[in-house]
Amino acid sequence: MHFDITDELDPEQPWQPLESILTVWIEMIQRCKVVALPDDVGTTTYANAEGGGLLEIPGPPQDPRTGAKRRDSQMKPWTIVPWTPKDLEESVELWGMLVKSIEQKMGLDDSPPADQLLDAQTLDSALIPDGFARKFLSRVPRPRFKYIAPGLRVPTAEDFIVQPLIEANWQQQDEDDVPAILLFRGDALVDADELTWIQANTTAPKCPCGVYLSPCDQYNPYPQQDGFALILPFDLDSGWAKKSDYGVVQAKDDLYQSGVNPYNPRHPAQLQAFLENSYLQIQDGHWDVDGDGVAGGLDLWNEADTAEKWSNYAVQVGPTRSRADDKAEEEGFENRCAARHPGSPQSRGRMRNVGNLQARMEAMMSRHEVDWIQPFEVPRP
Questions:
Q1: How many domains are there within the chain?
Q2: Which tens digit of pLDDT belongs to each residue from 256-292?
Q3: Distance CA 274, CA 9 (A)
């Protein structure tokens, strides 16, 4: 069976077992990503007026229970929301875990945070509309360090106000119409014409590298305000850097992205993926920490394109599992790899890196969570 939220039967999108499609649909309902609206929301009805003619009776603009709006009358009763309260809560929680992990590595105490990351005045000055970004940035605490990831700075008010992809005269046409927002800025610049979605949002020839929240178009059939892109100032072109479908990273903004997504080809990775991966990099000791936070600078991202480290940056699709749950499966997969691919210590090291990610993939496939991902042999560029 084919399921595509954009209602386009793209032959390049893989077909799925019905049980997988239903599982995804149920999860979207449970997370309130899709909402069944009452008939009167976002619609207009008519009644006979006393003096003749028709009386127009507009329904409520949004669902009083969930706040969801009707986006397409042909999809009744369903509508898709650009972000959910659960998306926000999980992102805030992951931010707290990441910040705490870095500060513990720095030897700082557990003092409660004194300030929020950005105040309302700063967000207003940066023209950040109401939505996921504004709520997230006003809720999370300000860390006591400078770098949240290699070469990427925690935003200060002065930095954040200068948004490279928000024009000074930009005006929001709809509450789901949100521009691309630079969250974590790097010092290097990228040519705007190298990335189509960047070029479409700025007249400047260059823009800063870093983590951007993706623009959300009100007319997109699957709006997503918590999507993100990491734009690097260099190419990862050795063939080792992988997306979630094990496709090779080809563009400066491909790292952490899902690749072929059988349910929506234009679905960006969620900000949670970046926060969670950064947390794991710190917890597992892959990233070092110094007095300014995460050390290594922008050049450290090149290790995502190496035989030894690529799997540390390949974000899995679907629910994550604890290390305790995965340990036995990882060891079992490593043993199977060693049996199939005997060789040098370097080769065995590569198997260990691949084994961690692949064991999780196999476990999820066994539960039909991401059974569109096929088992693979160790990729070789």
A1: 3
A2: 998 877 777 678 899 999 999 999 999 999 999 999 9
A3: 30
**What DSSP assignment string belongs to 87-154?**
HHHHHHHHHHHHHHHHHHHTT---PPP-SBSS-HHHHHHTTPPTTHHHHHHHHSBPPSSSEEETTEEP
Tell which of 257, 286, 315 closes a domain: 315
Cis peptide leading into residue 77 (ω within 30°): yes
The span from the CA of 317 to the CA of 314, in Å, is 9
Give how far the C-alpha of residue 285 lies from the chain's centroid of Cα atoms, to the nearest Å: 23
Is the per-residue pLDDT at 159 higher than 50?
yes
Whether residue 113 is found in the same domain as residue 188: yes
The answer for residues whose C-beta is within 8 angstroms of residue 42's C-beta and 6 or more apart is 59, 60, 61, 62, 69, 70, 73
The residue type of 102 is I
Distance CA 345, CA 349 (A): 6
> Which are the contacts of 317, defined by CB distance < 8 A and separation ≥ 6?
244, 245, 258, 261, 364, 370, 373
Residue 74 — very low, low, confident or very high, per pLDDT cuts 50/70/90? Answer: low
Report phi then psi at 283, rounded to 5: -60, -40
Based on the domain organization, do 331 and 368 belong to the same domain? yes
pLDDT for the residue 64:
84
Query: Does 183 map to a domain?
Result: yes
Quick one: 132 and 166 in the same domain? yes
Q: Where are the beta strands (DSSP E) in the chain?
A: 34-36, 44-48, 54-58, 78-80, 147-149, 152-153, 181-191, 206-213, 228-231, 289-290, 293-294
Tell whether 235 is covered by a domain: yes
What pLDDT is recorded for position 308? Answer: 95
In this structure, are 162 and 308 located in the same domain? yes
pTM of the model: 0.77
- Supply the pLDDT for residue 324: 38
**Which residues constitute the domain of residue 55?**
34-80
pLDDT tens-digit series, residues 298-319: 999 999 999 999 999 988 764 4
Same domain, yes or no: 275 and 358: no
Residues 68 and 175 in one domain: no
- Enter the DSSP assignment of 214: P
Question: Would you say residue 68 has pLDDT above 90?
Answer: no
